[in-house]
Write a structure and sequence with these properties.
Blueprint lengths: L1 H15 L1 H8 L3 H25 L5 H21 L3 H28 L6 H30 L2 H21 L18 H22 L2 H7 L5 H25 L4 H22 L3 H29 L4 H26 L6 H31 L1
Length: 374
């Protein structure tokens, strides 16, 4: 959980430090923004290839290596005096994170009985969500007080604690002998449906979420200070969503996935339709925030069940496509923004998420039809 918190904080921390890094390294804010975009693209591209290359190595060795890469890259980033050194360090961290989620999922759930594995996925997701609620805001505050390298160096400390704990305590075994190495109910059709729905949901979410600050200011009419508070509220809603979903995931795995996607669609379309009303905007913003974390969490949990072969490869594919969806969504929103107002990004995002709902519903109907024929 600490490793998940640290990786997610590392991924998103530059968002809160954009201006500080820009001034320190004398580059544009948009160039610093590439530290986040490039990170996501690297995770999207590298997840599955790295999982395939590392598939035969014991998981304890892989995780300690990934955390060592996080420690080293964070220290290099904290000491960077040029933009290109910082970008290199960020891409090294991204390569480590690309494999981290694929490996950590099966390792963590494999330590517990199958009937409580949903709660384990929930615990990891809560830790990841805390990065947005505590890690990034706390790192931003620390950076403004002491300079941006300080919170970046602190990530190295947290990574080192995680590394030592896993290196000492995690059992060593061959990957194929891990208790959660293979899906509990292999189903190639379900696997494809979940991947498609998750990718559509991610693309839709980030088509709007990337421009949420502009939306709340321009459309809903909130002041900059109120927007900052709402941004924190969005993170709290995300944390609440993964906490509630995690408690129910073992009993209703498919229903929780569908509920998360439907909630996201309603939240985004609601913001588009009535987001100019401040009260309505807050309600639908909370719905969207409460669904954003659970969508990825429930697709990851589904991979542990329906993976047609190794779960680490399935999780890598899911993580890679989700991050590809994030990049595509941000790019789509950027294309829509000059053509329509910022409300258009939420309309597009809501429709894409609704398409994900259709994919899930179609998959359920197809499955019911096949079962009735059999």
């Amino acid at each position: 959980m600490l490793a998940a918190f640290t990786f997610n904080t590392a991924e998103n921390l530059p968002i809160g430090l954009l201006e500080l890094i820009s001034e320190s390294l004398r580059v544009s804010v948009s160039a610093v923004g590439l530290l986040v975009t490039g990170y996501g693209v690297t995770v999207a591209v590298a997840s599955l290839p790295l999982a395939h290359v590392m598939r035969a190595l014991p998981r304890r060795h892989v995780l300690t290596g990934l955390l060592a890469a996080l420690v080293v890259s964070s220290l290099v980033a904290a000491l960077a005096t040029s933009y290109w050194v910082l970008l290199f360090a960020r891409l090294l961290t991204a390569l480590a994170q690309a494999l981290f989620w694929a490996v950590m999922g099966p390792v963590a759930v494999g330590l517990f009985a199958p009937e409580v594995r949903g709660r384990v996925v929930g615990a990891l997701s809560v830790a990841g969500s805390l990065a947005l609620v505590l890690g990034v805001p706390g790192g931003t505050w620390l950076g403004r007080q002491n300079g941006w390298p300080v919170p970046v160096a602190l990530l190295a400390v947290l990574g080192l604690v995680s590394l030592m704990t896993i290196a000492v305590l995690l059992p060593t075994s061959r990957p194929e002998e891990e208790p959660a190495a293979y899906g509990t109910s292999p189903d190639a059709r379900r696997f494809g449906i979940v991947l498609a729905a998750g990718t559509l949901s991610a693309t839709g979410a980030f088509a709007g979420y990337t421009y949420i600050v502009k939306f709340l200011g321009d459309v809903s009419g909130f002041s900059p200070s109120a927007v900052s508070a709402l941004f924190v509220g969005f993170g709290v809603a995300c944390l609440a969503g993964v906490s509630i979903t995690g408690a129910l995931l073992d009993r209703f795995p498919q229903a929780m996935l569908t509920t998360a996607v439907v909630t996201q669609a309603v939240g985004m379309l609601g913001l588009y339709a009535v987001g100019s009303d401040p009260v309505a905007a807050v309600v639908f913003l909370v719905m969207m925030g409460g669904a954003l974390g659970p969508v990825f969490m429930t697709t990851q949990n589904a991979m542990l069940h329906c993976a047609p072969s190794r779960t680490d490869l399935a999780l890598a594919a899911n993580s890679g496509l989700y991050n590809a969806g994030i990049a595509a969504g941000a790019a789509l929103g950027g294309l829509i923004l000059p053509l329509a107002d910022v409300r258009g990004t939420f309309l597009a995002g809501g429709l894409l998420t609704a398409a994900a709902c259709v994919v899930l519903l179609g998959g359920q109907l197809l499955r019911s039809g096949l079962e009735s024929v059999e």
